[in-house]
Amino acid sequence: MARSKTFQDLFKRYRRPGDFIISLVSFLFGLALLAALPSQTTWVDGQPLFGQPAFWPTVAVWAMVVFSGLHLLGAMLSERIRGRTEEVIYWLRSIEFAIWFIAYVLIVPRLGYLPSTLIFTNLLVFRLGYRQARWFAFATLFSIAVVVIFKGLLHVKIPSGEIYSLLPSGKFRLFVMIWL
Question: Which of 26-32's residues contact partners 24+ apart within 8 Å by CB, and which partners?
């Protein structure tokens, strides 16, 4: 016969490594959003409650604060499991790729879309440990495909690179500025 559980057994919480940190960050982020809410949303006179521009953002932010606060409380009261530091370091490692993307976004207006994409994809292939020539060829083909799709097929307006102004004026320079 199955053993029935008590009320406490049903709600026993097992804390995982990193629970406290992620709950703290989430709670602090929710508080920051709550503090910014009055300056970012408006309540309009004469509008019904559910039609107010500020209603749903307010509900969402308050829900985030309440639930992340409960998560934080649970994390503080649960048994600590070893491994929190390793978990946090693992999370922080992902910031490296955000920095790569920010660098890419900052370089595109200076070097142009195609050269920046070529440099970016090949550097990432190298960074990820792929050292064979075929991976650099795949990265190069991928870069060209991305530029063709975004600029040629989708007509995404991406500013031309400042470096293109060094080319002699004429049709070639115009082509490079529009398509590369």
Answer: 26/64, 26/68, 26/71, 26/72, 27/65, 27/68, 27/69, 27/71, 27/72, 29/64, 29/68, 30/61, 30/64, 30/65, 30/68, 30/69, 31/65
CB count within 10 Å of CB 24 equals 15
Q: Which amino acid is at 20?
A: F
Chain centroid to CA 65: how far?
A: 21
C-alpha dihedral sign at 142, 147, 150, 154? negative
69: Cβ contacts below 8 Å, ≥ 6 apart = 27, 30
Cβ atoms 150, 114 nearer than 8 A:
no
Residue 160: left (phi > 0), alpha (psi -120 to 50), or beta?
beta
Model pLDDT for residues 106-158, shown as the tens digit of each residue: 999 999 899 999 999 999 999 999 999 999 999 999 999 999 899 888 888 88
114: left (phi over 0), alpha (psi -120 to 50) or beta: alpha
Prediction pTM value: 0.56
